[in-house]
Design goal:
Number of helices: 1
Radius of gyration: 21 Å
Distance between the termini: 51 Å
Shape: globular
Number of strands: 13
Helix content: under 10%
Structural class: mainly beta
């Protein structure tokens, strides 16, 4: 093979590598501390924008098993502002593994990858609402599976959701406070459309984690950590978690 042909093939290979290497970034918000019941808890939210899609992964990463409603992650508030305007988000889907708790025996899986999107009366799963950002918790959007009447008018009261069912818990539940409840095991994924033209730097910090039903406590994440995954010529930049 002549040097000219080899050079053309090398240039073609480089161009192909560049075109096939999309950039993605995930904004990670975290909070850890004690619930209002004095139980150690830890939560994470991973927010990713890809094209017209915003994906939010909520995680209950508590170091001990959930013991009370106060320990559950039952609502989450976030904000996205693109060019000084909040996008019109459309709630596409919500999924997670639903388990039935049992005080005296191991919890049992009810539905893997269950539909958690609440849209009609009695769904009792996770509702999406546009919030009044001028009032607590001062963020534009929220998802929740409880009433959160303590945050009125930024709450989820009504006949779609109410009560602690489908909150995120850390298994295995072994107390009377969390017996015979339908709860989501540790993680849930929420997908929205309507963010075309937005990028990860348009995701506002901090966001807020709501615990319990009223909520029993509302905790704001610290400044976000951005996990940048850049595939360019085999180069990867990865943030090490603290």
């Amino acid at each position: 093979m002549g040097p000219v042909k080899r050079g053309l093939l090398c240039m073609l290979g480089l161009a192909t590598a560049v075109v096939a290497a999309p950039a993605q970034a995930t904004v990670i918000h975290t909070w850890s501390g004690l619930s209002s019941a004095g139980v150690p808890v830890a939560f994470e939210s991973h927010l990713t924008i890809s094209g017209n899609t915003l994906t939010i992964n909520l995680i209950n990463d508590s170091p001990v098993h959930s013991q009370n409603p106060n320990d559950l992650l039952s609502s989450y508030y976030f904000d996205v502002v693109c060019n000084n305007v909040r996008p019109a988000l459309t709630y596409v889907s919500a999924t997670g593994d639903v388990w039935l708790t049992d005080q005296d025996a191991p919890d049992s899986l009810v539905t893997a990858n269950a539909n958690l999107k609440a849209v009609v009366a009695g769904d009792d799963t996770w509702q999406f609402r546009n919030m009044n950002a001028a009032l607590s918790p001062f963020l534009g959007f929220g998802v929740g599976t409880v009433g959160n009447n303590g945050l009125t008018p930024n709450n989820f009261m009504g006949n779609i959701v109410d009560g602690l069912d489908y909150s995120l818990y850390k298994a295995d539940a072994s107390t009377a406070n969390l017996d015979n409840d339908l709860l989501v095991l540790e993680a849930a994924t929420f997908v929205f459309s309507g963010v075309s033209g937005c990028v990860e730097t348009d995701i506002i910090s901090p966001s807020a984690f709501g615990l319990g039903t009223a909520p029993d406590s509302l905790q704001y994440s610290p400044e976000p950590a951005t996990l940048a995954l850049l595939a360019f010529g085999g180069l990867a930049l990865v943030r090490r978690r603290r």
